[in-house]
Amino acid sequence: MITKKEKNIKMNFLNRLQGSLFYPGKFFSNIKEKSPYQSVIFFVIVMLIFTFISFIFDGINGEFSGLPVMSSFSLAVLFVMILVIMMILGVIVLYLKTLLLYAFILLFKIELSFDKTLILRSYTSSPLVFAWIPIIGIPLSFIWSIVIEIIGLSRYAKISVSKSAMVILLPLLIVILIIFLIFLFALSIILNSPAGFLIKDLV
Q1: In percent, how much of the chain has pLDDT > 70?
Q2: Cβ–Cβ under 8 Å, residues 127 and 148
Q3: Which of 19, 22, 164, 172 lies at a CB distance of 3.0 to 4.6 Å from 27, suitable for a disulfide?
Q4: What burial letters (b/e) apply to 152-170, b meaning 16+ CB within 10 Å?
Q5: Which one, of 125, 131, 113, 175, lies nearest residue 152 by Cα?
């Protein structure tokens, strides 16, 4: 039996998607949720949409051509497995991203609880519905989610846009720096290995 709360989530999904995507200032200024339940459900639905459309387009583009010929039932099972894995990984990443952002919220002494930070992160995932678009989808989704997060945190926590930008961009820059340093470290190991001499000769 569908409860009134669950029915309300389904009815309001498109409104929440439209608001978080195109009117983030107004949307995050009017959030009254005390529990992250609805926002996490929103995130899961967005992930489902992204995974479903990506799966269909991968099939159309022949991404599964290397697999053995599969029956409709086997394909359905594969699709369900992909959905489940994506949902689990998606929720794990959502909580990790929330934890990272919350650490910087505490660092900057912003009055926002972990639950509210999770609500913010969940709704700023809305650009994922565009991530399936070839070539431009992922960068567009990534950039727009950052813009929404900056606006959303500013309105939700009632802080300046500049302070919000610092809180959002600083951990992102740190992660990028760590990845870059790991890449340089890996590259130095490769170049100092026997294979590295071959690469140097080719260059």
Answers
A1: 80
A2: yes
A3: 19
A4: bbbbbbebeeeebbebbee
A5: 125
Domain-wise residue ranges, the chain: 4-161
Tell me how far CA of residue 188 lies from CA of 7, 35, 83, in angstroms.
56, 47, 38
Per-residue pLDDT tens digits for 132-184: 888 898 899 999 999 999 999 999 999 999 999 999 999 889 889 999 999 88
Q: Are 114 and 124 in contact (CB under 8 A)?
A: no
**The model's pTM:** 0.79
Over residues 121-137, the mean pLDDT reads: 90
| CA pair distance 141, 83, nearest whole angstrom | 20
Q: How many CB atoms sit inside 10 A of residue 42's CB? A: 22
Element (H, E) at 127: none
Tokens coding 101: 């952002």
The reported pLDDT for the residue numbered 56 is 78
Q: Which residue type does 183 have?
A: F
